Amino acid sequence: MRYMRINLFLFVAGILLACSPTQDAGKQMPASSVYVPVTSDTVASTVVEVAEPEKAMPDTLTIAMTGDIMMGTTFPSVMLPANDGKNLFRDVKDLLVNADLAVGNLEGALCDGGQSTKKVSNVSYAFRMPTRFAPLLKDAGYDFLSMANNHANDFGTEGIESTERCLKEQDIRFSGITGRVRSAVVERNGVRYGLCAFGHNGYTMKHNDLSLVKEVIDELRQQSDIVVVSFHGGAEGQSYSHLPQGREIFLNEDRGSLREFAHFCIDNGADVVYGHGPHVVRCVEVYQGRFIAYSLGNFCTPYGISLKGISGYAPVVTIQIGNDGRFLGGKIHSFIQQRGLGPRKDETNAVPRQMKMLSDADVPQSMARIDNKGNIILK
User: Do residues 39 and 86 lie in contact, with contact meaning Cβ atoms separated by under 8 Å?
Assistant: First the structure.
């Protein structure tokens, strides 16, 4: 509660002076009068604390969401963008900075050394971003990044600790690794956003463990006004753009039953759910009045990940929600990655068209539709 401090010296002095008697000869004070001599010694400076009303929560909140971020790697060879990556987020920065909350997925470790936990092959990659790249994420506008993915542990505990240290230095919240940071709360403009992240790897908080998912969401509901859940799951590659029914098995790993997971989150109090992992975009849905993005694909991965065709689609999805978490509207902003450069503006609007096709096919029951310009509109 804020207070205004008001000095009433002159006000009090004026009242007391008005009550003091005149000194005319022969005039007597009425018996009921009380004479209070007024001097500079008897009038103190009086301070009154007046309660100022609490600032109301905004009616409409804007959240910006992106997919995988791996800004370049120094392992197994050095592949880094020009100008130390300072131009990577050039075309998307305004959307992220101007949102009330900006979130994404950090696909790899921020560290300068360490031993890789993976054998590099055609199905196994390790990503190591230099720690000096961490300020690029803050400058881009990110408030929260998921670490619950299959690359956070590419350089073991040393890499995880280095990543967490880098993000803390930039005041970017994170979560998702078992036994470490379980969830986070970000406060912006008087609104508390509770955030958490789940994945399918052994070292992540598992999205298949629905009792854990409910427990974390319940905790965040007590601590925050809006709850946002991130997940990493699903099979990978252009053949897996469509959201299947049931569980996805890929490379002998259980990558989750993502419809069930997302709906479970909403049913248990989440307001927004966003996903990543397949390296391609998938459908978006409004379920029970809340927004779900099933995969936002690659976003800023200039090297080390295929960007051919739809693998290069890199949307920024912005949504407007009420302060009760209910979806009001949104937009899919179209960007396509260029090797070595990051996401660049797409004037052809190809990304929204792809996500509209997938959404019409895979979640026809959604409470929202996507128009040809990428607007997400309640039906």
Answer: no
